[in-house]
Specification:
- The complex is a heterodimer of chains A (about 450) and B (about 290).
- Chain A contains 17 helices and 14 strands.
- Chain A has helices at about 1-15, 40-55, 75-85, 95-105, 110-120, 130-135, 160-165, 175-185, 230-240, 250-260, 285-290, 330-340, 345-350, 375, 380-390, 405-420, 425-455, and strands at about 30-35, 65-70, 90-95, 140, 140-145, 145-160, 190, 195-200, 220, 225, 275-280, 300, 315-325, 395.
- In chain A, helix 2 runs antiparallel to helix 13 (about 345-350) and helix 16 (about 405-420) packs antiparallel against helix 17 (about 425-455).
- The two termini of chain A are about 45 Å apart.
- In chain B, helix 3 packs parallel to helix 7, helix 3 packs across helix 8 (about 170-180) and helix 13 runs antiparallel to helix 14.
- With about 290 residues, chain B is mostly helical.
- A two-stranded antiparallel sheet of chain B has the order 1-2.
- Chain B starts with a helix and ends in a 9-residue tail after the last helix.
- The chains are: A alpha/beta (about 450), B mainly alpha (about 290).
- The interface of A and B includes residues 9, 408, 416 and 434 of A.
Chain lengths: ~450, ~290
Amino acid sequence: MVLLFLVALFATAYWFDRAPEIVQTPEQLTITYWEKWTGFEGAAMKGTVDLFNKKKIKNAKGQVIFCKYLTTTQVDRKSLLAIAGGTPPDLCGFWERNNHVYADMGALMPLDEFIKRDNGTGGFDTENYIPIFLDSCRHRGQTWSLPTTPATIALHWNKDMFRRAGLDPDRPPRNTQELEEYNQKLTIKDANGRMVQMGFLPPEPGWWHYAWPYFFGGKLTVGLDKITANDPKNIEAFEWLMKFKQGYDPAMLLSFKQSFGNAFDSPQNAFMSNKVAMVIQGVWMANFIRFHNPQMDWGCGPFPTSFDTKGEPVTIVDLDIITIPRGCRNPEEAWQVIKFINTHEGMEFLCGGKENNGGQGKLTPFKTNTPGWIEAHTHKQLKVFIDLARSKNAVAIPQVPIWEQYQEEMKDAFEGAWLNKKTPAQALQAVQDRMQPELDRCNQIYNARMQALKKD
Amino acid sequence: MAAIGRYKGWLFVAPWVIGLSAFTVYPFCASIYYSFTDFSVLVKPTYVGAMNYQKIYEDDLFWKVLKNTFLYAGLSIPAGLIISLSLALMMNGVRRGQALYSIIFYLPHLMPPVACAILWMWIFNSEFGLLNNALRPILGLVNMSPPSWLGSSDWALPALVVMAMWGVGQTAFIYLAKLQDVPQDMYEAAEIDGASTLQKIWYVTLPMISPVIFFNIIMAIIGSFQVFTAPFMITEGGPDKSTTFMPHYIWDNAFRFLKMGYACAMSWILFLVILALTALAFRLARDRVYYAGK
């Protein structure tokens, strides 16, 4: 009797242990889309999906495709488990850093067949893209995703603070030497020796410690199998960063950094509260300045470099992507959503900047936009970011499978050097020594898996 | 009918047994196997023998994280014990308003951990925080300035220990319940023998509540080796990994770096560490804990 009861319980559990079936009708097919965004950015993404739904696009069976949008926190981890469990959604909104890692693990469906078939139709065309954005979605010769909200990063400066320091508010530093000089002029301490404001503080916001080497001509990898954390140019970059703490009591700098709290989207943000005059930030910063300090007079431009870029400024490309996970039940219908988002209509709605919602306030991944779109955008300096994306020196994150760990190690290396625990050379050598064996191990497993697949 | 009666108990506990088997026993056993594999969740696990354990041995960061965890446990367990016991003794001693004090000391425990973490982040803020605002004038007398609590690799871990004391009210409550169970005639006998207040605590109170002290120490060992929310929310393990503890490092490896096999191996090491410490505590308690029933 007990046995029977247990069997019945297990059978019930097995029955319910499936993705909830969405009731499909002969007239409508519903697909699910998990996306990370919340707040106004989530509303913009949902608005774009609503726009798709209004089109009432039909599949081959004549059913109207309806995309059900679901905001999902930690979307990468939750999707990973759903994919592993064989019950993924039809679409997943990830970060660029997930693209190549999940592709290597066979978690994503390649989109090349769809792209080849539909290229040049319905407003979708791969020729439209600024090359680096599409390249970031490719890995080992295949396309695993397409962009949703692309971004580049740039120097942002506070013009009022420049004026007060006697600097020309319309002339940002053009090289790393000038940035040091500007920092000297913009840094102020009070009578008690406490820091009041700084020109430039490398740990603020501390999101791109892996990126500093690129502004010195350094590199993090060579191909997919060589880590170059200890490249001399990388060490030079880290040594330069350490100059900004020289001459100050480390405890005072720590105390100053701490005073901003940990929140970025806050009026206490170091840049928006006039505490740090120059920061490196992405295209989204304009939204938050508008929300928290709309009176602020600020500018943005390419981050200074130590070398002559010959008019091709350096930037890091940061990208959100949309993918079809392995095990998706309706890939064809999911592709229709991706395709719509990657038309001018979809993308310009998503990335547009309209007051009181209606867009994420970013740039599109396209070479050109609909006439008047940039002019109507809330980001009045959007062109800076578009030009940065088009630069020959725009770099995407290295597509190594251990990227998540590698960037964490670069952050640790920076912190170690900043807190005087190690020299920049020692810190970066430690990253090199830890990461190269990790990469070798991952590549070995990937190659073995590929060979096994070939045999099968 | 007799058979149904005989198995009725099993029927009632079946949902719990199934839940425990599916969500605890199976993952527990499976993690042993995964700790000997290279497993990234999405790709089939590959057997690698003891490689994960060997790599852990060679991983400098693992040893640093383990040291941090021991340091945190070494500071928070005795501090928690002393503070909660002192609070309980104080509450036990007051004649009026005991209920009010109990509520006041228990309230922090009811606060959600994330909200609590954010609150403490501001208390520890080096420029505007309550703590440094209180310390600044005092330290100023000796020409010193208060530390940058969460921004300094030397002070971040002690700051988390201080924060952990926020929730000692619950432990104090357990002590209080037991303190009220200590027979009054024992105190009277001690008084007749001329014992001072401290002697009464040492020779009467502590032996009589020793089983509860022992229980709380065991729970504190387990809890302090599993600390996750506060460092994850407040310091993200930094600065310079000074507040990365074992659970956080395991989580990073499992869900961020997708090294599930490696994370499973570390989980087993953590389990063995907790097991060894608990066994040691039992061994040391053998002659020191007084059970009235024995």
